[in-house]
Amino acid sequence: MELYTILQQIVHDNNMHAKWLNTLSYMENAGARKISACESLTKVEIIQLKHAAEEHRHAYYLKKQIGKINSQVCTTYSDHELLASVATRQYLNSLDIKTCKYLQSVFTMTKEEMKFAAYLFVTYAIEVRADVLYPIYQRVLTETSSKIMVKSIILEEEGHLEEMISQLTTFSKNWRYHAEEILKIEEELHTQWIKTISKEVEQDCYAQ
After folding, report:
1. Where do the domains of the chain lie?
2. What phi and psi, each to the nearest 5 degrees, are found at residue 41?
């Protein structure tokens, strides 16, 4: 099932929609925490601080949007309050681990340099994905006249992507080749994640 169709089903069910928003919030928060974890103790660029702050703000914004559906649900990131909780929790971790393994196979770097390189490529892959996912979600929200909006996130994610490209260009002249390899890894993980969500959505619809 394609993402647009899945999101149509999710948005039409308040319980699932709240869980979807919470799932996105969890992933934005996890991304922010990983960005911070990749920081050097001393050589922290302002753009990295900006990314972490904005990802945390996205997590907060998405959490707040849940209140437009039901302020009493999805108050934490517990498994029962997320969609495809196991796959959701594994997604970013798996991307991070597999990216590090790839980078270790093609670059010779110190541990600190590796952390920064992983931040660049993982964040790039996530921003590329966000540039696809959020506009589709906003399209469904607009079509259903939903009170929920993610247009502000779309604009900031577009800016993030431009910033990551700028940083990667400085990092390596062959960054596009390596980025394509990381995107292949992310595509596989994303496909697995969406399939798991689709199954959960279908089971929920069938149960009703």
Report:
1. 1-199
2. -65, -25
